[in-house]
């Protein structure tokens, strides 16, 4: 797949408005501000594809991007843990997300994006549990790896792998940096495996 050819398809406020559930897609999930949209832009080599922001809560809709292989899509999910949204909105979001993960036939894998400095939040753990319950393979991107010294980043990688060694369906854990554009080939290989199977 040539990720550089990704194009914006549509934004869905709820899973009801998602594109027809056929083909293959991979969704990017994670806490607000973890770097999901930036990771999509880095993987697709297009800094203008998904909107990013210093302010958490930038992505509030489910955004779909098409790839050059017909029926293949990337999905940018709203972040979790954005303090300013109300409790009702949070509960609604959880329901939507749970529904999306369970119901979506075309969803072949989940990329869980975690800021390497704040890994395994309660939300991340919940995502891992949902994925396991839905038998959905997960790949973890430890983003903002550029914020740590290389040795510290490697230690964190090893720690996460060891903490999650019993998680079924964990496909890979990789160091990633949108700033330095590192880990990109590993991430693309994982996406290829899921989208082309
Ligand atoms: P929401 O849409 O709010 O859930 O956030 P998001 O997970 O999509 O995060 P986004 O990609 O918008 O990035 C949040 C902030 O982190 C932005 O200021 C980015 O420039 C910064 N950022 C993202 N990835 C990296 C990275 O790898 N390294 C560094 N240094 N900064 C990053
Ligand atoms: Mg975003």
Task: Explain what this protein looks like in three dimensions.
By secondary structure, the protein is an alpha/beta fold. It has a single domain (3-196), classed as Rossmann fold (3-Layer(aba) Sandwich), CATH 3.40.50.300. The chain is built from five helices and seven strands. The protein has helices at 36-44, 87-103, 122-133, 150-163, 184-196, and strands at 7-12, 24-30, 62-66, 72-76, 107-115, 138-143, 170-175. α4 (150-163) links the parallel β6 and β7 (170-175). The chain is globular, with a radius of gyration of 15 Å. The model has no long low-confidence stretch (mean pLDDT 91). Bound molecules: guanosine-5'-triphosphate and magnesium ion. Guanosine-5'-triphosphate is lined by residues 30, 32-38, 52-54, 56-59, 78-79, 143-144, 146-147, 177-179.
């Amino acid at each position: 797949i040539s990720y550089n050819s990704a194009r914006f398809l549509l934004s869905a406020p709820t899973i009801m408005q998602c594109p027809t559930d056929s083909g293959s897609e991979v969704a990017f999930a994670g806490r607000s501000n973890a770097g999901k949209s930036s990771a999509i832009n880095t993987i697709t080599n297009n800094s203008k594809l998904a909107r990013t922001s210093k302010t958490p809560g930038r992505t509030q809709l489910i955004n779909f991007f098409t790839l050059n292989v017909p029926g293949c899509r990337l999905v940018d999910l709203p972040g979790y843990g954005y303090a300013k949204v109300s409790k009702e909105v949070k509960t609604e979001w959880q329901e939507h997300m749970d529904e999306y993960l369970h119901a979506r036939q075309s969803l072949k894998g989940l990329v869980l994006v975690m800021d390497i400095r704040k890994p395994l939040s309660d939300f991340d753990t919940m995502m891992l549990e949902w994925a396991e319950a839905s038998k959905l393979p997960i790949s973890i991107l430890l983003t903002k790896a550029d914020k740590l010294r290389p040795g510290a980043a490697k230690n964190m990688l090893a720690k996460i792998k060891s903490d999650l060694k019993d998680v079924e369906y964990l496909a890979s854990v990789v160091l990633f940096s949108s700033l330095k554009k590192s880990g990109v080939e590993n991430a693309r290989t994982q996406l290829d495996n899921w989208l082309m199977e």
